[in-house]
């Protein structure tokens, strides 16, 4: 197992949670560490003493989560985050067939959404209108997406459309090293402290950031990044810089904790990088494809999954083809995230690319 975090820190946070002294900032970071390590563990199955100690700590935290559901003074947002993490831990336990952790059976697709709806005092029915109405509330309250953008995203989820293909010119062949990407991004500015982890076989690049905590960057390699791969790293470096700067919004929260604005900032950095490398047409289309078109198709698949109470991989392939898009492999972690989380990307792109309607028909 590639273990990327400080076990003593995780243990300390869990103990503070049990004693009632854990701050919201620390709890958010603890949840991020557990979620990130859970993803990494799906691609790395070498178990050692650290892994055993980590599993014991997670089991301890799981028991605390279950206990916390009995409390009466917990906010809807906090309760939502606990339920999502609890269900993810149950999925891991079910997937690994590890009976020693004594976790509950994970919730099915619609059941998970229904439990979340109860937290928000919404009477959810198993039909498209009811599900969409709840998801609109969820996206506004949990992701802070403006209502007008939520409406636009939902309209695209239920409508039929195809991307408009433009002549995109020559193929960009240059490969980047991590050092080159960092030099582009930071320039003459001092590089903030963060830990880079190279994890073989992971199917995504991602970061873990927290104000006042160690920031982490997770990659599958260190060199030979294609242009689009390099832009994804720029995206994650923007998250790291935002956490380091500790910018506080008028609402009183840190930028990195405002999911919509944080992703909008990172997506814009990604877009600027692509344009700066002289591939404005191809770069813009690839950027829209990755951050709007495919995420919309994933949301369509997710909506169908709520209605059918199961993931239909074949259905996702047909959704791609019906929208004129090449089918892509659905991640094994597709159902681990929060509901309609890809809507954050879609909404941010609609806000950043004012002419997005030119690219669909």
Notes on the protein architecture:
The chain is mostly helical. The chain has two domains: 7-106; 178-359, no CATH class. The chain contains 13 helices and three strands, in the order ααααααααβββααααα. Strands 1-3-2 form a three-stranded mixed sheet, sandwiched between helices. β2 and β3 form a beta hairpin. α8 packs across α9 (227-245) and α9 packs across α10 (259-276). The mean pLDDT is 89.
Computed CA radius of gyration, to the nearest angstrom: 21 Å
Which strands sit side by side, in order, in the main sheet?
A: 1-3-2
| First-residue to last-residue Cα separation | 46 Å
Structural class: mainly alpha
Order of helices and strands: HHHHHHHHEEEHHHHH
Major sheet characteristics: 3 strands, mixed
Number of helices: 13
Name the poorly predicted regions.
Answer: none
Helix amount: 55-70%
- State the shape: globular
Question: What's the count of strands?
Answer: 3
> Taking all residues together, what is the mean pLDDT?
89
In percent terms, what proportion of residues is strand?
under 5%
Spell out the blueprint of helices and strands.
Blueprint: H1 7-19, H2 24-41, H3 49-68, H4 76-96, H5 109-119, H6 128-143, H7 147-158, H8 178-186, E1 195-198, E2 206-208, E3 216-219, H9 227-245, H10 259-276, H11 280-308, H12 313-322, H13 343-352
Parallel strand pairs: 1-3
Antiparallel strand pairs: 2-3
Helix pairs in contact: 1-2, 1-3, 3-4, 4-5, 5-11, 6-7, 7-11, 7-13, 8-9, 9-10, 10-11, 10-13, 11-12, 11-13
């Amino acid at each position: 197992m590639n273990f990327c975090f400080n076990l003593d820190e995780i243990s300390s946070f869990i103990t503070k949670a049990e004693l009632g002294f854990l701050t919201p900032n620390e709890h958010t970071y603890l949840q991020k560490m557990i979620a990130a390590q859970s993803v990494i563990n799906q691609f790395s199955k070498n178990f050692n003493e650290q892994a055993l100690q980590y599993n014991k700590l997670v089991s301890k935290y799981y028991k605390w989560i279950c206990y916390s559901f009995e409390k009466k003074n917990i906010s809807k947002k906090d309760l939502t985050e606990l339920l999502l993490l609890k269900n993810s831990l149950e999925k891991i336990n079910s997937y690994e067939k590890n009976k020693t952790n004594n976790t509950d059976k994970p919730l099915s697709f619609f059941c998970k959404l229904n439990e979340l709806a109860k937290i928000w005092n919404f009477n959810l029915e198993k039909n498209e209108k009811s599900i969409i109405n709840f998801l609109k509330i969820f996206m506004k309250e949990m992701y802070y997406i403006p209502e007008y953008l939520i409406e636009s995203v939902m309209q695209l989820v239920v409508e039929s459309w195809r991307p408009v293909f433009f002549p995109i010119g020559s193929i960009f062949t240059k490969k980047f090293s991590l050092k080159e990407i960092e030099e582009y991004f930071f320039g003459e500015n001092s590089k903030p402290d963060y830990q880079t982890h190279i994890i073989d076989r992971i199917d995504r690049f991602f970061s873990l950031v927290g104000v006042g905590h160690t920031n982490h960057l997770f990659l599958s390699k260190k060199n030979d990044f294609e242009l689009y791969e390099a832009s994804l790293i720029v995206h994650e470096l923007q998250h790291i810089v935002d956490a380091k700067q500790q910018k506080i919004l008028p609402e009183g929260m840190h930028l990195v904790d405002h999911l919509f604005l944080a992703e909008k900032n990172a997506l814009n950095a990604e877009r600027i990088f692509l344009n700066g490398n002289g591939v404005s047409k191809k770069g813009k289309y690839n950027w829209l494809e990755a951050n709007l078109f495919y995420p919309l198709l994933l949301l369509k698949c997710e909506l169908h999954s709520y209605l059918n109470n199961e993931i239909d991989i074949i259905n996702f392939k047909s959704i791609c083809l019906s929208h004129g898009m090449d089918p892509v492999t659905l991640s094994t972690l597709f159902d681990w995230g929060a509901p309609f989380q890809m809507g954050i990307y879609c909404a941010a792109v609609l806000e950043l690319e004012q002419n997005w309607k030119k690219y669909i028909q």
